[in-house]
Amino acid sequence: MKIVRTICRILIGLVFIYSGFVKGVDPIGFAYKFHDYFMAFHMNYFQFLAMPLAVFFPAAEFLIGVSLILGLRIKIASWALLLFMSFFTILTFILALFNPVSDCGCFGDAIILTNWQTFFKNVILFVPTLVIFFSRNKNKNNEKNVEEWLILLIVLSGFLFVVNYCLNHLPIIDFRPYKVGTDIVRDMSRPAGAEQDSFKTMLSYRKDGTLKEFSLENIPWKDTTWKWVETRVIKVKEGYRPPIHDFSIKSFEGNDITNEVLADHDFTFLLIARDISKTNIKAYDRANSIAKYCKTGHCKFYALTSSSQAEIDSLKKSRDLVFDFFITDGTTLKTINRANPGLMLIKDGTILAQWHYNDFPHPTEFGDNLMAYVLSIASGNERNLTGWLMVFILLFALLAFKIYQVKTDR
């Protein structure tokens, strides 16, 4: 039985650590999911809680996962686990029934599940959750142990440091469809033979005050006393959905320049200014410098927004901007880059680099070879990611050693 308890503890611990981490490295993306929830349930007055909740829930998940894996504060972790799983199992059942949002966001953008898949995942995980909870008293644990609380405080502080970094820069690990290296044209295309959406046509007829629905196969065409009311086309099965399916760039005059931009062999900077009314104004000065650099013939520069023409005109006048704005769907812009504004560099439709407004480069950094600059920052990003992973490994190694000392001292 001890082996079963240990397996359950490790299994749930790993799931919670992974779930908390993939949301923690993209807190803005998870906050968008809370915005969707509040809108779907007509609770817009709670929108101000989106970001605090987007930090709290991943941090709590990560901390519960670490507690279970390392065997710290098991009694408290078991109660927290049971509350989490009970709440989210009920919530995902409601989401599965009414489908107000298509994806619950339980694994951020790393793993996309339907609401029913998420609900059944929670039902399965509830079994080891109950094993952990009902065996919580079998773990010999001094609830006043200062060392274990200190270890968990260090873990929480490290996690919040990562979250804060990703809030002020871009995610250290990017799970979005528009991550660096993505070929937008390829990811917008539908492979030959890909499964299509399946639809069912239902027709409503009325007879003697009774309204009844019929499929195309059983229409009461011989009984003329049935009177047609309406026809509904229902999607019964989702077909293949390209990773990128909603990317477009249009001028305010209605001209679509998407293909022109994606087919351009030159470097193209895209400023992602989703909502000008909530944007970082100072960032436009740095963007303006890049746009002036592009105007010398080095590359192209477009600004994409979902804001109104009046907001654009006001911004251009106040910052003396030299570039033009084009229209792209707001949800798409939120997916492309989490910053407002953010910056993306593409060539031949392939994403070469992404920047948060806190990290916008200055044209003097480009030198005479923009590709060489892009390769240098890609190498730097790879080193940074390796550094982050080494820090996490070292941290857990130190924690494991400290736990061993704590356990052996008892």
List the helices and strands and how they pair.
Layout: H1 2-24, H2 27-40, H3 50-70, H4 74-98, H5 115-134, H6 146-168, H7 184-188, E1 198-207, E2 210-215, E3 227-237, H8 258-262, E4 267-273, H9 283-298, E5 300-305, H10 309-319, E6 325-327, H11 330-336, E7 342-347, E8 350-356, H12 370-409
Parallel strand pairs: 4-5, 5-6
Antiparallel strand pairs: 1-2, 1-3, 4-7, 7-8
Helix pairs in contact: 1-3, 1-5, 2-3, 3-4, 3-6, 4-5, 6-12
Distance between the termini: 24 Å
Low-confidence stretches: none
Secondary-structure element sequence?
HHHHHHHEEEHEHEHEHEEH
What helical percentage do the residues reach? 40-55%
Rg, Å, rounded = 26 Å
As a percent range, the share of strand residues is 5-15%
* Total domain units: 4
Molecular structure report:
The chain has helices at about 1-25, 25-40, 50-70, 75-100, 115-135, 145-170, 185-190, 260, 285-300, 310-320, 330-335, 370-410; strands spanning about 200-205, 210-215, 225-235, 265-275, 300-305, 325, 340-345, 350-355. It has twelve helices and eight strands. About 50% of the residues lie in helices and about 15% in strands. The strands form two sheets. A five-stranded mixed sheet has the order 6-5-4-7-8, with helices on both faces. It has four domains: about 1-170, no CATH class; about 200-235, no CATH class; about 260-365, Glutaredoxin; about 380-410. The longest helix is centred in the C-terminal third of the chain and has 40 residues, at about 370-410.
